[in-house]
Amino acid sequence: MADKITRFNLHEYSISAQMEYRKARRAEAREIMERNTQFANSFASISANRAIGEGDIFSRIAMERMAGQRVSKKA
To answer: Which pTM value belongs to this model?
Structure first.
């Protein structure tokens, strides 16, 4: 038997060895998913913070423009 278990020679190993191999593969996949989720969350928070910052800038510009104009009391 080969030293490394692959999906092509998995049938040559005992049931317990197959279960251990599959358990290790699931653990690796879980770690990768968690890492990708952390990356996605960090990018989402960056995007949200950027949107908030842009909204603050736009509101400041609007407030400055409103302060510079005379407001009609007839309206």
So the answer is: 0.57
